[in-house]
Every structure is written in structure tokens, then in C-alpha cells.
Amino acid sequence: MSIRWRLTLSFGFVFGVAVAVAALFLFVAIQSWVVSVRIDTRLNVYSALKVSELSGETEDGIDYAIAVASLPSLGYYDPDHPDSTIWVQLADADGNVLARSNNLGDVVLPVISGRNLVPKTVSGGTLRILPYYFEANGQIYQLAFAQSLSSVNSDMARMGIALLLIVVAFVALAILSVAIMIGRALSPVKTVTATAQSIASSSDLSRRVNYHGPKDEIGQLAATFDQMIEQIDGLMRSQRSFVADASHELRGPLTVIRGNLDLLKRDLSEEDRSESIRVLEAEMARMTRIINDLLVLAEVESGQLDREQTVSLKEILLDAQDRALLMAKDRRIVIERQDDLWVKGDAHKLDQMIGNLVTNAVRYTPDGGTITLSLYRDGDWARVDVADTGIGIPAEQLPDIFERFYRVDKARSRRSGGSGLGLAIVKGIAEQHGGRVSVTSELGKGSTFSVWLSL
Ligand code: ADP
Q1: What is the pTM of this model?
Q2: What is the DSSP letter of 368?
Q3: Please, which residues have CB within 8 angstroms of residue 226's CB and are 6 or more apart in sequence?
Q4: CB 368 within 8 A of CB 331
Q5: Whether the CB of 418 sits within 6 Å of ligand 1
Q6: Domains of the chain by start residue, with CATH
Q7: DSSP string, 33-58
Q8: How many angstroms is it from 423 CA to the middle of ligand 1?
Q9: Residue 423 beta carbon below 6 angstroms from any ligand 1 atom
Q10: pLDDT digits (tens, 9 = 90+) for 7-66
Q11: Is the minimum distance from the CB of 414 to ligand 1 under 6 angstroms?
């Protein structure tokens, strides 16, 4: 069953029960009010009247039972309202009926047991009876005043049917309007479902719900759904271009390797042969670097890092300087500032991150240039700056250089041994540690890469 009908029926049930209980309560209240006002008041007034007359007679010493035997004349009959006839009956303590008002005909009223002077409904709800007890000649007598409830009952039955019809109409109307309201409220969900189904069947991630209604729970669901599809679409597109880029990067060295292998099969001079082998080794090394970097990137992006180690950034910086000095040639590698800062993270990956920045700085700085490393506290962050006096990066390319396989100068980067993944790895590691990386650069003057890691 759909949510719409489940909600509607639940509401209908609760509402129906509530309205029915209210109607029942109203019915019972009206009934008892009508009985007490219309019947009991008359019985009380009439009985009080007659009993006072009787009392008078007892004072005269007249035998009570005999006096009451004249009761038939007490029968009060209203020809316009036969139901308002009041019946009177006298009984002794043993329940023997001694006298009855003549309007009773052959009917005998039930004798009420007990001594309560309150009206009671008897004979299956058809009779209201008010007993009155008195003592005469050492005996207890019960004088009962009664009135038929048949007209009250038929009035109440009519009112009951009217109430029932009102309840049914009320509940039906409420159910109908609730069903319409819920249907309207849930209609965007149908659109979301239809969009999801069409995406699932067509694999077309460009489709969106594009909900323009109010920003309620359903509106938020539709917006979140669109956001999620947008993200998945972006991820899929970057995944596709990543696979295409990776294949392209690996196809280059493979083509060179195949060409040189073909060459080696021929009759080559010793000089050409050793040149071919040197090229083969270089391309193999490049492929190995690309594949290693791809593996590191996959590891970093999957988030499987051991971030619980306590790492000294100062040590990492000194190690990076040592390694850079090995390939620095005429470049100077200096440490400007080295605070003793420790962070929580994956020591090996943090080492690789700083190493990549320093390697790039050396790679893109001509001989005679200077690479300056700094480590210092910046608010709640540990900040590492790697500044060089190298070739710099054109401003319009700065936003892209952290993309996978993005290179400013492709030929130069390849020549200098870059895989195009170094900065993507730096960014990935920084972000996996809750940090970030940024760059400022001036063409021909140098670049500064800064990494922030939370302390
Ligand atoms: P690569 O392996 O090609 O160096 P990276 O991802 O490490 O790849 O760097 C991306 C591009 O950013 C490089 O191709 C280069 O053009 C540019 N780049 C990176 N670091 C520097 C730097 N210190 N100075 C100038 N350009 C840089």
C-alpha cells in the first residue's frame, strides 16, 4: 500500500474514533440531560405533590394502605401527550402490589428493591421509575411513580441516526481532503522517483529533478538528490577523463619502447644500440614512476592512511633538504625557519608530500636559483612553505596545477621526469590530514607552495 493511503487510513482511523467517541459522549450527555429534565423533574414534582397529600391522610390516622387504594384517581393523564402519562403503584415491603393507578390498565410496574429515593431506568430502558418509601402501621410501603421512556427513546434514536450521519460525512470529508493534501505533498517524491528510475534505465547522469516548490522536507530531498547526482556525475566524468589521461600517459612511453625494440632488432651501430637501450631504460623508468604515482594517488584518495602517528615536521623538512641537496647541483637549498612542530598523521605520506614540493622546486628552478624551506606556526596550523626562484607558473594556470596529469609545459615536465601527478598527490595528502595547500607564483620570478596542517 502506498504511503499516501497508509497515512490517510491511519489518520481516518484515529480521526474516526475520536469523532465517534465525541459523538457518543454527546449522545449520552443529551440523553441523560433530557431524561433528568423532561422526565425526572416531572416525576419529582408530581410525587412530591401526591406524597404530601398522602401524608395528610396518615396524620388523620386513616389506614395508609386503604388511603392509597384510592390512587387510581391519582393517575395523571395528558391526552395530548400520552407518553407523559404518570403511573402510580403501591407495593408492600414484600413486593406485593397493593394498588395501581387506573391509567396503568393491566400493566404492573416492577417493584424496586433497596431504599434509594432516586429515579431509575428499568424494563430494558423503556420505563423511568421514582420510588418513594413510607412507613404506616409499622409496615414499609413503596409508592412508585413512573413514566414511559418510549418518546424520549424514539427522539434519541432519531438524534443518534443524525449524529451517525454527521460523523460518517465528517470523517469521509476529512479523509478525502487529507488524501488530496498528502497526494500533493508527496508528488515531488514521485518526480524524484521518476528521475531516479530514468537515470537508472538510461545511465544519463545529466537528468535532474529541478524542483522549484517550497524548501520543506520534500524540497530538501529533491535538492539533495540533484546535488548527489551532480557529484556522482562529476566523479564519473573525472574518473573517465582520469582513465583516458592515464592510458594516454602510458601509451607514450610504450610507443617509444616498441619503436626502440624494433630498432634493436635491426643491424645497428654500437653507438645507436646503446642510445636505444638508454632510451628504453628512461621510458621504463618513466612508466614505473607514473604507475607508482598512480598507486600512491589511489591509496591517498581511498583514505587508507595511518593518521595516528605523531610526526615531527622539522625532521621531515631536514630530510627533504638532505635529499634535495643530492640533486640540487648549483641551486641553493636553505631552511629559513624551522619551529619544532608535531602533527598527527601518516609520517611516510607527509614525507612524500613535502618531498614532492621540494623536488618540483628543484626541477623548475634553473641552476644558480635558491629554494627556501620554512616551517612555522600559523594560528592553529603548522605551515610549511617551499619557495623557489624558478620559472614560475602563469596566473591563469594556477587553479589547474593540482589536477591529475595537468602540466604547464608538457614537454619540459616530461623531460625533467615529471609524471604530472606530484601536486595531485600533495593536495590529496594535505586534505586527508584535514589540511590544505595553496600556491602563489610570478612568471620568471618563482613560486611559493604553502601547506597547512592542523596542530
Ligand atoms: P610534474 O610531475 O609534471 O611536475 P606536478 O603535478 O608535480 O607534475 O606539477 C604540475 C605542473 O605544475 C608541472 O608540470 C609544472 O608545470 C607546474 N609546477 C609544479 N611545481 C612548480 C614549481 N615549483 N615551479 C614552476 N612550476 C611548477
Answers
A1: 0.60
A2: T
A3: 208, 209, 210, 211
A4: yes
A5: yes
A6: 3-160 (3.30.450), 204-304 (1.10.287.130), 306-454 (3.30.565.10)
A7: HHIIIIIIHHHHHHHHHHHHHHHHHH
A8: 7
A9: yes
A10: 999 999 999 999 999 999 999 999 989 888 878 888 888 777 776 666 544 444 445 445
A11: no
